[in-house]
Design goal:
The protein is mainly α. It has one domain. The protein has a two-stranded antiparallel ribbon with strand order 1-2. Helix 1 packs antiparallel against helix 2, helix 2 packs parallel to helix 7 and helix 4 packs across helix 7. The chain is globular.
Amino acid sequence: MGKKKKKESNYQFAIEVADGFYQTGLSLAKHSHEAHYDRGYIWIPPGVVNFSFATELLLKATIFYDLKQKPWGHKLYSLYQSLSKKTKQKIETSYKQYKKANEKVDSLPAYKITIRVGDDDKDHSKETNFDEIKNLLEIHSDSFENWRYIHEFGQEGYCYEFDFKAMDAFYKALVDALKELLKNEKASFGMKLA
């Protein structure tokens, strides 16, 4: 067997692709919230997975342009923690503004799904407050994996939640930070349809 070739990343392209995942997640979130559709829940996991992956891609691009290093891993909170203090402050300022603006957006829901196994009648839910990014990302850090495999559960069951409004505010705050980091960058990729 041959050696695996090292892959390079183009983070400007990743930003563009992230927008596709984000727009898809946004559309699915809104679709899941439509009252007239009796199976709206089927759109929640795909919406969460798309939203989460878009956020991961933007975080990785932000790390690359902020720290000039290739990021690793999938946990949103760990990725966020690696950013410089200056960039995190910009993101936190933007996040609070977008979060406040999103309070009036009814089409972006928040969901909490609990799977109880056997005689488990405990309330596994916790009160969550996403005013701080730390709280948001600790809860949403593993959303890409958890919601992708939502149909799988062990003896313990689970309680997952996803707040589309808060994650939308975080995503938009990342976009703002990237605009600042990329303001002097030249385009490094091109695409044409065959």
